[in-house]
């Protein structure tokens, strides 16, 4: 067998220098790690590198060993002069590199969150897109939002919806003092309830509401034009001895034709007041309105907005009496 020359040793089938061979440094099979060099039979790092584990690395630039062995930089960071730093003008927020100009969870400053659908634009939370505005900390479309229709806080009620920034009734219905109405519903079964005698069923809203001319006051409907306990507005009570005349607390003598003084304090029109129809204290019943001083029955013209209506079997389809919306089925001739 051939022998190796001076300074060399046999490692397997090859003669190597155990003093300088990176794969057999100091002994056969002793391989130096990444970046290490075999010098005098010892694996060692050169230049500005140091040993971290079995590798020689630069603590100034190595992202896995930045500044010291084992100190790894987070995703998106680089090791610059031994310190982990974010790339591309980003900054560290909560252990991650982010852009303060566009990050919705760190907008302008770390921890500043853009809520309500807003975006981070140039470091400021802002609503983007036509018609979108900030209302109560949320980004809304003022053209369609029923709680912020056309302006913050403008709520659409009474069956209306927000259309192009305005509260409007659905097609085929009209807006009245009590909401959108296109037809009268059944007062005996309106939204799961029976309407009182001072209410009618608004079919569009599926809700019992006060008859025209009356205003809701607690559990009843009142005539604010003649009720001394609710004169001009609900809860506005006239002083003792005063009467409510056209919504103003006045002397009883101020009540004049066509109104009549009822109970010494209520100045009402007996020709159309459903609470005093024809004479003081005569209230019309459920599904009745006061017409020319007489309580007249009406029924729902179900499914109809105009006359004639096939639902009015045995009665007459009329423009709704007493200021009710739409059309109704009336007993007898139309008023």
Commentary on this structure:
This protein has 335 residues and is an all-beta fold. It has a domain of 118 residues. Helix content is 0%, strand content 31%. It is built from no helices and 30 strands. The strands form 14 sheets. A 4-stranded antiparallel β-sheet has the order 27-28-30-29, with no helix packed on it. Strand 27 and strand 28 form a beta hairpin. It is rod-shaped and about 135 Å long. It starts with 8 loop residues before the first strand and ends in a 5-residue tail after the last strand.
The low-confidence runs, each spanning 5 or more residues with pLDDT under 50, are none
Q: Which class of secondary structure composition applies to the elements?
A: mainly beta
Tell me the total number of β-strands: 30
Principal-axis shape: rod-shaped
Estimate the helix proportion, in percent: under 10%
Average of the residue pLDDT scores: 83
Strand order of the largest sheet: 27-28-30-29
Radius of gyration: 44 Å
Biggest beta sheet summary:
4 strands, antiparallel
Distance between the ends = 133 Å
Number of helices: 0
Order of helices and strands: EEEEEEEEEEEEEEEEEEEEEEEEEEEEEE
Strand proportion, as a percent range, falls in: 25-35%
